[in-house]
Amino acid sequence: MNLFEYQGKRLYKDFSIPTPKSIFVSSISSISDNHDLNYPLVVKAQVQVGGRGKAGGIKVANNFEELIEYSNEILGMDIKGHIVESLLIEEASTIQEEYYISFTLDRSAKKYLMMLSSKGGMDIEEVAENNPDDLIKLYISPSEGLNTEVVNKAIKDSKLNKDFNDELNDVISKLYNLFVESDCDLVEVNPLAITNKGVSALDSKVSLDMNAVYRHDNFIDIEKEIPIPVSEQFAKEKNLNFIKLEGSVGIIGNGAGLVMSTLDVVSEYGGKAANFLDIGGGAKAETVTAALEVLESENNVKSVLINIFGGITRCDLVAEGIVEATKGKDLKWPIIVRLDGTNSKEGLAILLENSNEKITISSSMDDAAKLAVKGAN
Ligand code: GDP
Ligand code: MN
Question: How far from 212 is each of 146, 184, 209, CA to CA, in Å?
Fold first, then answer.
């Protein structure tokens, strides 16, 4: 479960990780002038997408008037398809240096992975690609944990400011404690800054491992605060396994594995999936109809790829669902269908009988993905 910045920073405070003093608001009317924060204040859009700064979602207010003005501007803003519904207002920091740090799990190494870089405040994928030597990787055995000497070496290797070595070491060990004790999948701070008040975590990206929900009462409370997109809510009611993504190629498939590889193939051909949607095994016609209905409510979808490999799922029933959902309709987007496996002959015959000019049948997953990517451009 991915948290918003304000939720991650609340966890930072629980673990005594230094982070600016802040308030969280979800409406203009709840912002009053008698907060106990000192100007200048940073108004930060709470959306789960990076690059908010560049998109205009972060502004510095020097007085109450500006605070209201910028809050008004940012609330409701659309940042890469995410509508801003809340703000974190925090005391601005005077930044001297910006670093990057993250903790994740490296499954293949069976270890935790800490990444540290002096090139913070920017896109870390870019650093990894163009200046890989500036990203220090440290594998940590979960049974041994972090030790001070190893962290000191990582700080030195990353060429972080040595005047702050002890403070950095302390903050890093607290971030590690948060990562382990709160069963996180990810704790990322970009930037972890040296400010005039010392080391401070200015941004937060935290993801919780929901498999551990049974031992963390707070996970459920945190989950309740995260608004579910309307489409995900609808999909849940229809028993569909749907996750909204950023791209434009709508995906429908049967079985999580097949859907995952469909996402990969779409990406292989230069496209980006708009979603993950698994209709499950043994889907009936109405399941397919509901799946198409979910995608209809998604504005970013520009083409749809239906990839079915029938085992217990019968391709003829899937075809019936497609026909049911599209018959006589002026479709918003092209649909590319690949049907294979149980009753695929019957399924394809049904589609041919009820042909729709926007529906293309494709015999391979590769061709289908290529066409879907083309259709989305
Ligand atoms: P992101 O763009 O979504 O990753 O949002 P961040 O919270 O990381 O902020 C982006 C950038 O804004 C940071 O790297 C800083 O350079 C700048 N920034 C954020 N907070 C402050 C602040 O309190 N003071 C100053 N001077 N800059 C800030
Ligand atoms: Mn950031």
Answer: 22, 9, 6
Residues 33-81: pLDDT tens digits? Answer: 989 999 999 999 999 988 899 899 999 999 999 999 999 999 999 998 7
Nearest ligand 1 atom to alpha carbon 52: 3
User: Which residues lie near ion ligand 2 (Cβ < 5 Å)?
Assistant: 190, 203
Give this prediction's pTM.
0.80
Does the Cβ of 342 fall within 6 Å of ligand 1? no
Whose tokens are 């398809």? That residue is 81
6, 70, 100, 176: the catalytic one is: 100
| Domains, in order of start, for the chain | 21-91 (3.30.1490.20), 95-215 (3.30.470.20), 230-376 (3.40.50.261)
Of 281, 331, 337, 278, nearest to 305 (Cα)? Answer: 337
Helix (H) or strand (E) holding 232: helix 230-237
DSSP 3-state of 254: coil
- What strand order describes the sheet that includes 87-91? 22-25, 87-91, 41-45, 58-61
The alpha carbon torsion through 213, 219, 221, 223 (nearest 10 deg) reads -100
For residues 198 and 217, the answer to whether their CB atoms sit within 8 Å is: no
What is the identity of the amino acid at 204? S
d(CA 205, CA 188): 5
Question: For the segment 2-18, what is each residue's pLDDT rounded down to a tens digit?
Answer: 999 999 999 999 999 99
